[in-house]
């Protein structure tokens, strides 16, 4: 599993200690972009859709593509623009607009979308697929989220010879759990290493090293699942429930 550590990380003296790590740099906060590309193993260029959505701001996708022009190439990759709480058609339109190689892009499957749509996204042939928590499955690691994730991986092993590269957005809290994520990201180090008066500040590299040592399995064995009789059968009918992942609480 590849662990992508979110930025910005301040002050720069702390960022320098993270040299050699994998980084997630958001288009919403580009502060550390060039440094991370020059000093990190690889960079996941996040489209920032989640931050724009929570802040009530509209993203400039043409600006995002311009930003990527000199930053996108192996081993670096980008999360293709998506619309949080948008329709499938909204997101497919953005996928079609992605101007770079499919190998360098990751499409987003919002977990409130049908699982059949997840398989359609995989069949588009992009390098990676991101799971994005949404709707009733907004809270990473919740009971409803786990049930949904079980069903998704069941469907993948039933359909494909091997599990595609699945990246879990805001999902490093799930490292060490049962899910075969190939990669995940989190802002845990950036937001927590200073302590903020509740705990003693620690070296960000030491904190990242502990996170990096926790891996996910590479094999998925089908699990029995049971639908919640109190939820509608179509997950797209669920209302969005804003929350944060375990690391960000």
Strand order of the largest sheet: 1-2-3-4-5-6-7-8
Percent range for β-strand residues: 5-15%
Structural class: alpha/beta
Output the CATH class name: Alpha Beta
- CATH-defined fold name: TIM Barrel
* Count of separate structural domains: 1
Tell me about the biggest sheet?
Answer: 8 strands, parallel, barrel
Task: Output mean pLDDT.
Answer: 89
Q: Cα distance, first to last residue?
A: 23 Å
Which CATH-level-2 architecture? Alpha-Beta Barrel
- Total helical segments: 9
Work out the radius of gyration: 18 Å
Please trace the helix and strand order, writing H or E for each element.
Answer: EHEHEHHEHEHEHEEHH
Proportion in helices? 25-40%
Description:
There is one protein chain. The chain has 249 residues and is of the alpha/beta class. It has one domain (2-248): TIM Barrel (Alpha-Beta Barrel), CATH 3.20.20. It has helices at residues 12-16, 33-39, 49-55, 61-68, 88-97, 115-123, 143-159, 188-192, 204-212, and strands at residues 2-6, 22-26, 42-46, 77-79, 105-110, 128-132, 166-168, 183-186. An 8-stranded parallel barrel has the order 1-2-3-4-5-6-7-8. It starts with a strand and ends in a 37-residue tail after the last helix. The model is unreliable at 228-249 (pLDDT under 50).
């Amino acid at each position: 599993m590849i662990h992508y550590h979110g930025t910005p990380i301040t002050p720069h003296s702390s960022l320098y200690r993270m040299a050699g790590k994998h980084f997630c740099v958001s288009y919403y906060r580009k502060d550390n972009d060039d440094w991370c590309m020059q000093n990190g193993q690889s960079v996941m260029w996040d489209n920032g859709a989640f931050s724009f959505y929570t802040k009530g701001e509209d993203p400039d996708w043409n600006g995002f593509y311009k930003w990527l022009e000199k930053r996108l190439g192996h081993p670096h990759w980008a999360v293709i623009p998506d619309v949080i709480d948008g329709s499938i058609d909204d997101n497919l339109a953005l996928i079609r607009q992605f101007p770079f190689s499919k190998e360098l892009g990751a499409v987003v499957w919002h977990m409130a979308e049908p699982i059949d749509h997840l398989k359609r996204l995989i069949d588009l042939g992009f390098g990676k697929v991101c799971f994005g928590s949404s709707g009733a499955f907004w809270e990473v690691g919740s009971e409803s989220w786990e049930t949904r994730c079980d069903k998704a991986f069941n469907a993948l092993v039933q359909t494909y010879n091997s599990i595609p590269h699945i990246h879990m957005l805001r999902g490093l809290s799930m490292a060490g759990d049962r899910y075969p994520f190939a990669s995940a990201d989190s802002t845990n180090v950036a937001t927590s290493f200073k302590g903020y008066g509740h705990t003693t500040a620690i070296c960000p590299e030491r904190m990242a090293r502990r996170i990096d040592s926790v891996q996910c399995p590479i094999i998925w064995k089908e699990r029995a699942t049971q639908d919640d009789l109190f939820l509608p059968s179509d997950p797209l009918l669920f209302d969005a429930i804003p929350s944060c992942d375990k690391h960000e609480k």
